[in-house]
Amino acid sequence: MSLFEKLPQIKYEGPKSKNPLAFKYYDAERVIHGKKMKDHLKFAMAWWHNLSATGADMFGPGTADKSFGAEPGTMEHAKAKVDAGFEFMKKLGIEYFCFHDADLVPEGKDLAETNARLDEITDYIKSKMAGTNIKCLWGTANLFSNPRYMNGAGSSNSLDVYCHAAATIKKAIECTVKLGGTGYVFWGGREGYETLLNTDMKFEQENIASLMHMAVDYARSIGFTGDFYIEPKPKEPMKHQYDFDAATSIAFLRQYGLDKDFKLNIEANHATLAGHTFEHDLRVAAINGMLGSVDANQGDDMLGWDTDQFPSNVYSTTLAMLEILRAGGLTGGLNFDAKNRRPSYTYEDMFEGFILGMDSFALGLIKAVALIEDGRIDEFVKERYASFDSDLGKKIRDGEASLTELSDIAIKKGIAPLPGSGRQEYLESVINEVLFQG
Ligand code: XUL
Ligand code: CO
Question: Is 212 helix (H, G, I), strand (E, B) or coil?
């Protein structure tokens, strides 16, 4: 049975098309900057938003019907979601998906029952994957919804909860490996605190690190060769989350010796919640060799929470793609951790959300390549540091200069002239020119 029978196969029609159910910029097979668009932009469907979220919020129930013809909370429904997901991905030409264990099946009465359900559904998903190009990008465990995780999982004060989390992670890793996933994510939504008055921060962070080490050891022992990712987020649901941003997460990974196995999964709306731009956190990850994957979405400048909107801001996707291209691409992909607005509740809206997001990133890619080819921005940055091309500059860069030597040179010069202008306004006008002319 076709769920989306009224919706067509989504095709590329080009920028002049007015067809809402067509791509204007995403042309999967087009080669740009040495690769097919679809290889630059490995788009993934997030099982939780697309197949599970109904738009329910604190003030009212969901508006979207995601029953897909079955009774929610049953295994029949879990399978209907698989059917819907595969039909959806095929119609949009999306080749990857991401999941939490809890998105796949309803939790059973105990771990054994939940695990048996996961075995059943992953068998079913595998059978659906056969003969398609659809692959698993990454998997993760939901260690935040169930009340048992009210104080976190790795950071929980309760040993029982900690062990339960370990079992849950073990199974989620097994599911990820079974589905051929190339990444495994830790998003620490409840790994943080509400008040320091009841919190031993060092103890909690050490326990989180131990759990991650155990996860790495186990995953490697069953043949997982992919990357682990931390997905930074500063707050929400906790007031303060330990994986605050890219820089904090990298410091944590290095401190606890996890940096060889982990990279980062940077989410746009999480970076902005941390008071950074999306491109800032991408840059921090990239210059530390830890740019792994991206949760592609956007927030709302007026709202201080994670709105998880489909990306529409081409200025932002351009600057993001510039970072990604300069870093040599992602080892992971672009997962739409994004949901329709509550009043956009139809199947058609689901398609239009993805078309918007895919086209916004495709246009961002096209414009980022145009900026690189234009060359003015790169050239300006190079020139800006050109004084370090001197012999003395090289000596400093090579770590061979001393403070006394520099001091003697500076005293001889007497006064340092002002550095060259940063020309921010000029650079911003170059971006506008490339974005809006041709
Ligand atoms: C929550 C969030 C999660 C992670 C996976 O803000 O982004 O959905 O991506 O747990
Ligand atoms: Co996310």
Answer: helix
Q: CA–CA distance from 70 to each of 76, 109, 218, 274, 375 (Å)?
A: 6, 21, 36, 39, 55
Cα 71 to chain centroid, rounded: 31
Asked if pLDDT for residue 84 goes beyond 90, the answer is: yes
Ligand 1 atom index nearest CA of 233: 6
CA-nearest residue for atom 3, ligand 1, is 187
Would you please indicate which residues are annotated as catalytic (active-site) residues? Answer: 100, 103
CA-to-CA distance for 311 and 251, rounded, in angstroms? 29
Cβ-contact 215, 228 below 8 angstroms? yes
The residue whose CA is least distant from atom 8 of ligand 1 is 337
Measured from the CB, is residue 185 less than 6 Å from ligand 1? Answer: yes
Nearest CA to ligand 1 atom 10: 187
Whether residue 140 has its Cβ less than 6 Å from ligand 1 = yes
Q: How far is the CA of 3 from the centre of ligand 2 (A)?
A: 27
> In this structure, which topology does domain 26-374 adopt according to CATH?
TIM Barrel (3.20.20)
Distance 322 CA to ligand 2 centre (A): 21
- Find out whether the beta carbon of 103 lies less than 6 Å from any atom of ligand 1: no
Which residue spans within 296-376 are E strands per DSSP?
Answer: 334-336
Please count the other Cβ atoms lying within 10 Å of the Cβ belonging to residue 205.
17
Handedness of CA 27, 33, 36, 38 (dihedral sign): negative
| C-alpha torsion 3→357→59→75, nearest 10 | 40
Task: Give yes or no for residue 295 CB within 6 A of ligand 1.
Answer: yes
Inter-residue contact 66 to 52 (CB < 8 Å): yes
Percent composition of the chain: helix, strand, coil (DSSP 3-state, to 5): 50, 10, 40
**pLDDT for 168-216, tens place per residue?**
999 999 999 999 999 999 999 999 999 999 999 999 999 999 999 999 9
The verdict on the CB of residue 187 being under 6 Å from ligand 1 is yes
pLDDT score for 432: 98
> Can you read off the two tokens belonging to residue 167?
């079992």
d(CA 247, CA 232): 9
Per DSSP, what are the bridge partners of residue 49?
none
Give this prediction's pTM.
0.98
**Domain ranges across the chain:** 26-374, 388-436
* Contacts (Cβ under 8 Å, ≥6 apart) of 260: none
* Mutate which of 137, 140, 244 for ligand 1 pocket (most atoms within 8 A of beta carbon): 140
First to last CA, the chain: 44
Residue 168 Cα to chain centre, angstroms = 22
Give me the DSSP letters along 308-321: -BPP--HHHHHHHH
